Amino acid sequence: MxxxxxxxxxxxxxxxxxxxxxTARLCAAWGISTRLSPLxxxxxxxxxxxxxxxxxxxxxxxxxxxxxxxxxxxxxxRLVRAAVAEGLPVNALPGPNAAVLALTLxxxxxxxxxxxxxxxxxxxxxxxxxxxxxxAERAGLSATLIWxxxxxxxxxxxxxxxxxxxxxxxxxxRELTKRFEEVRRDSLPALAAHYALNxxxxxxxxxxxxxxVEATSELDIDALLRAALAAGSVKEAVANVTAATGLPRxxxxxxxxAIGAAP
Length: 263
Known about the structure:
- The chain is α/β, with parallel strands linked by helices.
- It folds into three domains: 3-85, Tetrapyrrole methylase, N-terminal domain (Cobalt-precorrin-4 Transmethylase, domain 1); 98-208, Tetrapyrrole methylase, C-terminal domain (Methyltransferase, Cobalt-precorrin-4 Transmethylase, Domain 2, 2-Layer Sandwich); 218-261.
- 49% of the residues lie in helices and 14% in strands.
């Protein structure tokens, strides 16, 4: 907490919190007695009219998230958009941001970077989302990629990242700015193997290096297909490799048949 943030929170007429219990502990530590009220993903839309009425009266309303920066994978976007649309003043106070801090500590190229929030919770949807980003890379995107992830999904997400993006340098940053801060840097397959055996804890940020200059060759497709065929049916292998490469399904299917026919 910066001195400015403490002063603003003390002077607010109301503090909207992602979780009032979390913010109450923060306020207690700084001797702040501002009234707290919840604003989260499930009630934000319903709260907007009431908060806007307070702002029109000249009341000062603060918005606090549990960790990091409000709106960045946290509630508040709809409220801020409504205030901006009405021409009401909106200010932001700088504080820790896990995506930027993880990028700083990763050792990977700092710009350009692309922050993608949380990936989908299920593997099939997650691989599809990663494949869309991989297709954008094949079309010319070159940026360091950043995701947030829940600790209990880190191992499987790293496995999916390794499947789609390959042997690319990456970093796993957790508990940034906190007592047990840790940054582990390695290739995606090595990180996936590590976290398959060592469960992650706390707030986690995943950083993946930009795509190398490359051209997908027949050998690349064959290697992906062999790995996919070893784990599933031809249909599943073709679907996974098509998603990972962005190549036409007919081309991938033809290679799968050729591999299956090879001695």
